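Sat 14:20. Reprocessing the chain from the morning session after the first attempt stalled halfway. Input below, unchanged.
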Amino acid sequence: MAEHYSSLTSFLRLGKVALAKGPVALLLIEDGVEIASTLRHNIDAGFKKVIAFGSPDIPFPKGMEELVVRVDHDLSAEGAMEAVINGCIEAAPRGTWLYYSYNAEYLFHPFCEHRNIAEMLAFNTEERRDTVLTYVVDLYAGDLDSNPSAVCLDDAYLDKSGYYALARPDPANHNHPKERQLDFFGGLRWRFEEHIPAPRRRIDRVSLFRSKPGLRILPNHTFNDEEYNTYACPWHHNLTAAVCSFRTAKALKRNPGSTYDIQTFRWHNSATFTWHSQQLLDLGLMEPGQWF
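Finished this time. Tokens:
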């Protein structure tokens, strides 16, 4: 039977049993682009539940109502992302693994073709890590004449270089660098930075994390617990993952201020996206850590 809630409040009161056992995927639907493929990708990844949040005005893919929990919530409202994530953190049992992303974003973790998300998170839990840092890797259609929205799964490209990291300053400590925290940049947000507000240029996101009392996500996609924002534990490297995302490309082509300045996203460092974790590992866009 399809589960459909008319508001976030209703879901958190009546449907929070969906958050009882992780890992749980929280999908934030901003528009009608590639909803079905994103839902299918998350289901196939091995999440116990997939919960989709979005405006009721956005058509939902036929045949998927039975596979996901649907919650009506306007994501264009101020603070909508934080309301969803923090509401689910509070409603979920302590220690539940949660993952959040937007439509037209696809999670890849090391060896995901052979090991599902639950196996990866079980290993990470054994490592005493409550988070998995992810890099948002921009995808874009190679031919914008054929795909003016910049979204095409069969003609997807990514940047194979141009990524870098800077120390993350701590305003509470005279802007000295924070321990085991970096700001990561690259992709379309770097190449077309004149069209991207400075606070939105980072590509790091803590997309996978464990719920606990008092935890809150902030508007800049960091958490109020500083350890949750670290890329590794103090004693060795930890695995990371990648969220391969058309979100920036479609925004740049949808925005009247940038669309006419961009005839193509391809450049000499573009590469066809193979939809395989090995490509991301080879490019250094995620790491297996100690997981072999």
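The mean pLDDT is 95.
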